[in-house]
Amino acid sequence: MTSKAEWLRATLLATSLAFTVTSPALAESAPDAFKVTDFLLDNGMEVVVIPDHRAPIVTHMVWYKIGSADEPPGKSGIAHFFEHLMFKATTHHAAGEFDRAISDIGGSNNAFTSYDYTAFHETVAPSALELMMSFEADRMRNLILTDDVIKTERDVILEERRSRIDNNPEAVLDEEVDATLWQNQPYRIPVIGWMQEMQQLNRTDATAFYDKYYRPNNAVLIVAGDVEPDTVRALAEKTYGKVARGPDLPPRIRPVEPEQNTKRTVTLSDARVSVPSFSTQWVVPSYHSGKPGEAEALDLLAEILGGGNRSRLYQALVVQQGIASSAGAYFQGTMLDDTNFTVYGAPRGDAKISDVEAAVDAEVARIVRDGVTADELDKAKDRYVRSMIFARDKQDSMANIYGSTLATGGNVQDVQQWPDRIRKVTSDEVKAVAARYLVLARSTTGYLLPQQQAGN
Asked: How far is CA 445 from CA 4, 277, 280, 284, 343, in A?
């Protein structure tokens, strides 16, 4: 299974690269064989087909519109826990049979849980697509959940938390910063869950979660690769189409974040830390929650401010001043609710973390005051387009782009129209979102320090 950090890196990469692959300039020259098709099965399951016949492989993904932010109070970790349970025995297949079938044909598979969705994926030869659909459709409703199965897998996730979170100072700090940044929204709770609540998860919890959320009308099927839409439709109807529709779920309405009006800091000193670092975060709109154009402007702001070695932060702090070993920014736009905008840095040589933080703040303030140039903006847009051309070479990137968008309230048209919206962003709009949202008096900063710097 994929950790939060691994999922976040993959999501940020896919989001920053992805949507422009379906830009009009590319679409006009693309043959019909590459056109995306989407349709609904009678039981409410949405299906998206992304043909790509350049290699004889196919990526098959099932996205459930359920993540850690949808968990009942006191049951943190149940979404991730259930991701694990989906690999257990069903009434038709023994535990491990699915994995062995994929391994026997040289394929690969995995799954991941985020705040807003849970996804299961396989990459196989096209001839095995029906088999993948059959296995996934089976475990959608036919899992066998016993007390022994629950106890064994609960021990696994508890150990996963110990090894990936509790033994990692950076991960511990990330959790504490999230819990401080979000005052009411469930994104403040870690995807993997709090240890004391994970320890109490039981078969009753798991069964109730399964029966409520693991239904075809709460799922999206993404098939990308060497396939034809008509073939995928026939196979989907033959397999997933046999699964009964579940009760309609209520809208995903979550607690609303109150007005943020304070600056907060979180500090962790640990003997395992050798180089200090910091990050500053703000609550900002996502593509789903923002006003028209806001998220696009934030995406380009992140790219210009700290999106790579051409960015302002990298050039100023790493190249010119030489005070930072790393410096950057990112915007996590594909979320169901509001999201976060982050800047970060770490010192180099004799520089102090306070020097790096002050320099990062100065670059943010410069954009708030003076905005960005037309040349910077045009180059940022061009980098998105060029990156997307290369991103199309990865089926899983395309599947992740469409899957994450549809699982967070978007649709196929949102993906396809994104390049036009990006191209329409102006310098004034980038300056406006920086001034509106990147206010230090409403930020949360986390410091990761070596043990000897405690109290500094």
From this structure: 20, 11, 4, 15, 9
Q: What is the DSSP string of 301-367?
A: HHHHHHSSTTSHHIIIIIIIS--EEEEEEEE----SS-EEEEEEEEE-TT--HHHHHHHHHHHHHHH
pTM of the model: 0.91
How many Å apart are CA 57 and CA 108, to the nearest integer?
Answer: 11
**Nearest of 246, 351, 337 to residue 286 by alpha carbon:** 337
Task: Work out the average pLDDT over 272-278.
Answer: 96
- What's the gap between Cα 19 and its chain centre? 15
CB atoms within 10 A of CB 433: 27
Cα 102 to Cα 125: distance, rounded to the nearest angstrom: 10
Going by C-alpha positions, the residue among 109, 91, 90, 92 that lies closest to residue 100 is 109
Q: pLDDT class for 389, splitting at 50, 70, 90?
A: low
pLDDT digits (tens, 9 = 90+) for 82-95: 999 999 999 999 99
Contact 113, 83 (CB under 8 A): yes
Which candidate, 363, 371, 358, 352, places its Cα nearest to that of 426?
371
Strands 264-270, 444-450: parallel, antiparallel or unpaired by DSSP? parallel
Report the candidate in 65, 97, 58, 96 with the shortest Cα–Cα distance to residue 79. 65
Integer-rounded Cα radius of gyration of the chain: 23
pLDDT, tens digit (0-9, with 9 covering 90-100), for 182-241: 999 999 999 999 999 999 999 999 999 999 999 999 999 999 999 999 999 999 999 999
pLDDT exceeding 90 applies to what percent of the chain? Answer: 85
How large is the average pLDDT for residues 405-430? 94
Crossing angle (nearest 10°) for helices 203-213 and 78-85: 80
- Check residue 165 and report its DSSP letter: I
Main-chain dihedrals φ then ψ at residue 371, nearest 5 degrees: 75, -165
CA distances from residue 303 to 294, 298, 300, 309, 418 in whole angstroms, order as listed = 14, 9, 5, 10, 16
Q: With left for phi above 0 and alpha for psi between -120 and 50, is residue 137 left, alpha or beta?
A: alpha
Active site residues: 83
What residues have CB less than 8 Å from 310, skipping those under 6 apart? Answer: 379, 383
Residue whose C-alpha is closest to residue 46's, from 221, 209, 166? 221
Q: How far apart are the first and last CA of the chain?
A: 39
Pairing of strands 46-51, 219-225: parallel
